Amino acid sequence: MTRAPVYRWLVPRVVAPLAERLRLPVWTTERRLGELQWRSPEELEKRALSRLRSLLAHTARHVPHYRQLLAGVDARDIKATADLARVPITTKAELRAGFPARTTAENLPESRRQPMMTSGSTGLPFELYWDRSVLPVLGGTDRFWLGWSGIAVWHTRIVIASPAYFYERIKPPRPLHALANRLVIGERSENLPADQITTAKFRSLVERVTPRGPYFIRSYPGALASLAAGLVKDGTPLASYPRAVVTLAETLTSANAARLREVFQCPVVNHYSAWEVPQIAHSCPAAPDTLHVNSERVILRVVRPDGADAAPGETGRVVVTDLANYVMPFINYSAGDLAVAGERCPCGRGMPTLARLEGRESEMIRTPEGREVSSGALGQLLTFVIGIIPYVWEYQAVQAAPGAVTLLVVPTAKFTSGFAASLKRGVEEFLGPEMTVTVEPVSAIPLEASGKRLIIKSLPAPRS
Predict the structure, then answer these.
(1) How many CA atoms lie within 13 A of 25 on its CB side?
(2) Listed residues 339, 359, 379: the one ending a domain
């Protein structure tokens, strides 16, 4: 007997009104975001700038790393988000080297520090602190964005992400709070480590959670693409299908998005987040290819090499400021990602946009001519120009030498030698005459130690 109808009645009629009356931050955050999303871009920027000035004043006084960087910058002179170009960009390597003495606020109690650790997928894992006072706000934001995806808080969450060792090292914050949420609002989560997922384990889990009611999936898109290929080969329908697939932590290629929609028979949305700065942006419910930036929590800038803001439609480096973490601030922080700056969304929401995530800065094919090709650009070529979707489940471009790329592909039943030749020719024409491309069909593309899968992977040069 499913318990979903109980919570579908209980939560909106009893729990939510009571929580609002008590002004519990999780619930008030969800409601406030629902109201603010329709405000004008000018009003939302004004709100963000007010928070930014307070953050800058705090960090200049109490955080050694930023005390040095902000020397000569008066928070009152920051009149627009573009003025952040006057603040030097901070990198992960700098914060990693200075943790905790130089990166942590000297005036806040240790009880505010929530220890976290990144997955290390970029080769630079590092420890950090979240601000415990913000945890309820993160919960409310998560629920707000679930609503965008057509998901309710009492729908079971199946998470296919970090490898097993990561779950062993990183304990979820506030376990008693999670237990209370399960009992009061029906919130439940099931974890499947990305490095241990099989079709049999997934089918078994779906059979187990289906009696509870609807469920949804949060996953790295690469791991989920592999799972989807296996499910198709099995040829057996699932006991039930998810309400939505929410992808995170990797570049969601157009090919993967199309395959996941086909196999899981549901919408596929893109959630842009990082361990160090969570909940950055999320797919628009009306225009899924566009991502809305969470301007209540972050200021996101897409910048050119000179640090100036990129124009709409222009690709640049993502630089983000977390407006809520006063314990270990991230200001003008290079997230290591590339994105395309967006214009105002026709849906009517005033939050800033990203037209597209292009992938990580580390995921680039570099040609002898000096060109740099991002994973997003490669995905656009393969999906919309060459037409890879009917023939290939997933792919990875491996650059082992300056003039050579091997395109690993997991083929579908429609894959032929003729398509392989067309694929090779199309990618070589795109990369230029000095690049040689080899197309190599494989049964599977292995995950990295982080549980993620790179779209573009550069191998270190062999030692002489």
Answers:
(1) 10
(2) 359
Asked whether residue 264 is domain-assigned, the answer is yes
Three-state SS for 405-420 is EEEEEEECCCCCHHHH
Cα 267 from Cα 148, distance rounded (Å):
11
Q: What is the pTM of this model?
A: 0.84
Cis peptide before 136 (omega within 30 of 0): no
**Chain-centre distance of CA 226, in angstroms?**
19
What is the model's pLDDT at position 177? Answer: 67
- What are the φ and ψ backbone dihedral angles of 162, each rounded to 5 degrees? -60, 150
Cα dihedral 32, 33, 37, 38 in deg (nearest 10): -20
What φ, ψ does residue 241 adopt, rounded to 5°? Answer: -115, 150
| Distance (Å) of CA 432 to CA 283, 356, 383, 384, 387 | 34, 24, 19, 19, 19
Please report the pLDDT score of residue 173 as a whole number: 53
What is the pLDDT at residue 126?
Answer: 78
Burial of 106 (0-12, 13-18, 19+ CB in 10 A): exposed
C-alpha–C-alpha distance, residues 100 and 109, integer Å: 14
Closest alpha carbon to 365 in 453, 450, 434, 449: 434
- Nearest CA to 246 among 109, 375, 146, 388? 146
Residue 419 CA to residue 36 CA, distance in Å, equals 49
Q: Which amino acid, 321?
A: T
Looking at residue 464, its pLDDT comes to 47
Number of domains in the chain: 2
Q: Do 280 and 404 share a domain, yes or no?
A: no
Q: What are the residue ranges in the chain where pLDDT is below 70? A: 1-3, 119-125, 162-177, 450, 460-464
Give me 234's structure tokens.
């099995």
- Whole-Å CA distances, 434 to 26, 360, 370, 371: 55, 24, 11, 11
Report the distance separating Cα 238 and Cα 232, nearest Å: 10
Please provide the DSSP assignment of 118-168 as one string: ---TTS---EEEEEGGGHHHHHHHHHHHHHHTT--TTSEEEEEES-HHHHH
Does residue 320 share a domain with residue 410?
Answer: no
CA–CA gap between residue 160 and residue 343 (Å, rounded): 32
CA-wise closest residue to 365 among 320, 430, 301: 430
Q: Which candidate, 219, 262, 271, places its Cα nearest to that of 241?
A: 262
Domain with 427, as residue range(s), is 363-458
Q: 10 Å Cβ neighbour count for 3?
A: 14
Per the structure block, which two tokens stand in for 142? 């998560």
367 and 431 part of one domain: yes
Predicted pLDDT at 3: 62
